[in-house]
Amino acid sequence: MGFNPLKKKHGFERLRNIAPLVAAGAAALIPATVGASMVIDLLQKRDREQREAPRPGTFHSSVEGSQLSIFTDGETLYEDMLEVIGSATESIQMETFIWKNDEIGQRFVDAFNAAAQRGVDIHLIYDGFANLTIPRSFYAQLDDRIKVLRLSTVARKFWKGPLRYSGLNHSKILVIDNDVAYVGGFNIGSLYARHWRDTHLKVTGPGTWGLRHSICQVWNEYHDAGEQIAWVAPSAWESKIRVSANQPIQLIYPIRSMYLNAFERAQDRIWLTTPYFIPDQQLLKSLMEAAERGVDVRVMVPQESNHILGDYLSRGFFEQMVRSKVTVLLYTASMIHAKIATVDGKWSTVGTANIDRLSLTFNYETNVEVIDSDFAAKMEKTFLADGEHSQELGPDWLDRHQLTQAAEWVLRPMRPFL
Description:
By secondary structure, the protein is α/β, with parallel strands linked by helices. The chain has helices at 5-50, 74-86, 103-117, 136-139, 190-194, 209-221, 254-265, 281-292, 308-323, 357-361, 373-387, 402-411, and strands spanning 59-63, 66-71, 91-96, 121-127, 147-151, 173-176, 180-184, 196-197, 200-204, 241-246, 269-273, 277-278, 296-302, 327-331, 335-336, 340-343, 347-351, 355-356, 365-371, 390-392. Strand 4, helix 4 (136-139) and strand 5 (147-151) form a beta-alpha-beta unit. The longest helix is centred in the N-terminal third of the chain and has 46 residues, at 5-50. This is Phospholipase D-like domain-containing protein.
């Protein structure tokens, strides 16, 4: 039989008619899958919150005249923070994501008020979206002398530049008297004190300057000259302690480049912990290429995070990693929320940024990178302690249930937004 152009034309027309229906069906699957995952998430959350998180300990190191402490449990961290706030004599700057109106949250309110009554100059920034369920009356308790910025996800000047005037304030920094600073994954709340495994860094000495400067940049962008925080000169040029801060208002996102640079330099090992692993293809490729050249690449994520949707999006990448030489570790003891990495026993980072699009290309985030072998050894000790509560994904992951694979496929279009 000869070629019939009319038949081919009719075939294209049928395909064109069917395509919108297929697209609509696929689009409908996304909210249905999201809705189902949220129901499952609510059913599982109780058990997750009741489990007490392991406490690897607190580790100390000294780098270029700064004392560094790695905190791995919230209870110890909060007590240390509140003690230092209680001794503040000059200034306090804090930037946080979630600030709960519970026992721990109230203790911070009381500590800030006491400091303000002593004459300490205080600036506080917290995220508006993350605290939508917190009554405004909770923050209204703060002393009138305390300057407060509730950072909206979409600022009033949004029309001037959508990218500049949007973004979640996901940084978690506290700076006292320009001499002590904290940064890491811990939000403020009783849940995080015992039930989440997280990591925070305390810096005492000249290494605090970059963290203070990061907060000041955010505050000053949203205030006129008379209300801005004064610039303070650094006491030294630090080469081994650096601060990388994403500043959407300035269209600056250096943390992603920081990670890529470290991964591409790796010769021996990359050990990474993140609660949400939804990387772009370049980041994923850098990890897999490192593994292919013989680097020991281990990526630790929670077996069950506080967001089941994030879990399903993460698992969509596990197949590629398992097929390569990257080791995937599922932390089973509790929710692990740490955002840390260490490379070759030389370079390390502790901070607020997850390995996902929100953190690396949208949010206000802050990470400290430290180039020091002693500090890296402490970071590796922390990672290995967490590894005792983790299970490695094996080849059997490739044979997971077809419905699970289907859910991962349906949710793929959401990757660029999370």
